[in-house]
Amino acid sequence: MHELSIATAIVEQAAEIARADGATGVASVTVRVGELAGVVPDALHFAFEVARDGTALSGARLVVERVTARAWCGGCAEEFALGMPPFFWCPRCDRPSQELRGGRELEITDVEAVPAPA
């Protein structure tokens, strides 16, 4: 389960961001996960709960924003969803697409820090 190594990296990066901001902990971390990223969101949630124990994120929640895989058809200038399994043929003009526009994302987009007491 490679989601555990991904969750560990998320915890480490979020803790680093919180420290840099002078926070004592993290309330939540938001990540964008594309359909084609090879990450199972439920497994990532489970792995995150394991990885956060004993860290500044021990009470943090993980918010996963799923990103639909999309491609671009140069023939008819149409962007379309690929579906799962991905199908790279344009539904409008029936030509193959050679440009992926989204769906491989795996990125932290927000870290909600717990401020240090005044």
Automatic annotation (TrEMBL):
Q: Where does Ni(2+) bind?
A: H2
Record's keyword terms, sorted: Metal-binding, Nickel, Zinc
* Record-linked InterPro entries: Hydgase_Ni_incorp_HypA/HybF_CS, HypA/HybF
Which superkingdom, per the lineage? Bacteria
Gene3D superfamilies xref list: 3.30.2320.80
Positions bound to Zn(2+) = C73, C76, C90, C93
Q: What is any one GO biological process for this UniProt entry?
A: protein maturation
An example Gene Ontology molecular-function term: nickel cation binding
What is the annotated role of this protein in its UniProt record? Involved in the maturation of [NiFe] hydrogenases. Required for nickel insertion into the metal center of the hydrogenase.
Q: Which family does it belong to?
A: Belongs to the HypA/HybF family.
Q: What's the protein called, per UniProt?
A: Hydrogenase maturation factor HypA
Q: Which organism is it from?
A: Streptomyces argyrophylli
Q: What is the lineage of its organism?
A: Bacteria, Bacillati, Actinomycetota, Actinomycetes, Kitasatosporales
